[in-house]
Specification:
Layout lengths: L1 H24 L4 H18 L3 E4 L3 E2 L2 E8 L2 E8 L4 E9 L7 E6 L2 E3 L10 E7 L5 E9 L6 E9 L2 E14 L7 E4 L4 E4 L3 E3 L6 E6 L8 H7 L4 E2 L10 E4 L8 E4 L8 E9 L2 E12 L1 H34 L1
Parallel strand pairs: 2-11, 12-20
Antiparallel strand pairs: 1-5, 3-4, 5-9, 6-7, 6-10, 8-9, 10-11, 11-14, 13-18, 15-16, 15-19, 17-18, 19-20
Helix pairs in contact: 1-2
Protein name: Ig-like domain-containing protein
InterPro entries: Ig-like_dom (IPR007110), Ig-like_dom_sf (IPR036179), Ig-like_fold (IPR013783), Ig_sub (IPR003599), Ig_sub2 (IPR003598)
Keywords: Membrane, Transmembrane, Transmembrane helix
Length: about 325
Amino acid sequence: PYLVCQRAIYKLSFLLLASFAVLSLCPFTIEMVLRILLLLIVVSSIAGAFSVIPRSNVSLPTFTSSIQYESIQFQKRAKNDSLHLVLKFTVADAPSKDVEISLAYNNQSISVGNPDDRVDVYAEKHLNSSGFLSDIILNLKNSAANSGVYTLTLVSDSQTASAEAEVDSAPILPVYSKPKRVLQGDPLRISCRVSGYPMPVNVSWFFAPIPVDLSDDKTTISDASGLLMAIDSSDEAWKDALFSSEEGTPNDTLRFESIGVAQNGLFACNVSNSLGSDSTFLLVGVKGEAFLHTSNIDLLVILFVVFVTSYLHEDNSTFSLDR
């Protein structure tokens, strides 16, 4: 209470001195003096308002390494599994010593622990000589250290203050572990979810066809990586393809309502922002009608063999019993 009264006295003294200074310079009417005094009160209240300010934005380190997908060797971007990012905030004019902290990542609420807790997100609170909160240091470790926008919100004595801090990084695309196998006419969804900030303008898609009978040929797959062409949605072969934004970046998802054999081949997507770029590959195998007919014939043959074998076994068993 003493500090609150002291701040109020300082503000009132400032307002009175400013008013006398203005009056001594020019003759004003009472109405004009009241307006100037009101303006000074507003300015003073804003200057001393409860606030939190980020000291600076930080960057999330990434690296590139050579990896192999099927028979394709290429450079892929990733981030370290063990990371420790620090976001620093300055707190001004907290109305009381009791301050509640909440945190959101990309508008999604996340929990914040204390330094003694064994958690990946925790806050360090620093106080000034009067015991009021003056600084907050947010620690983001391991899987919680991601690029994006972190929003810190403070609540004290029914007053709220918030600020945003950005964690920038070059974009990172997923790594596909194995090819997708589908049947002609089936729906298919391919996602190139982007992790990175600032958000790329869009995701660029590329494709190289592969003959169905060479879908598993390593040399053909490797050669296809050098024959990739940008997908033209106006082409008749792509009339059933639909680009959409389902993971947060424009064109990050490619959907087929009824995929055709013309889409049997190698897909690739690429993204970039001001800090770097990344690419990834996906092999899609589309089995056509000939495969379906062959499979049906094979199934009938197998069922016939099973039936005959079962019949002969039963007949032999009956013969043995009769003897």
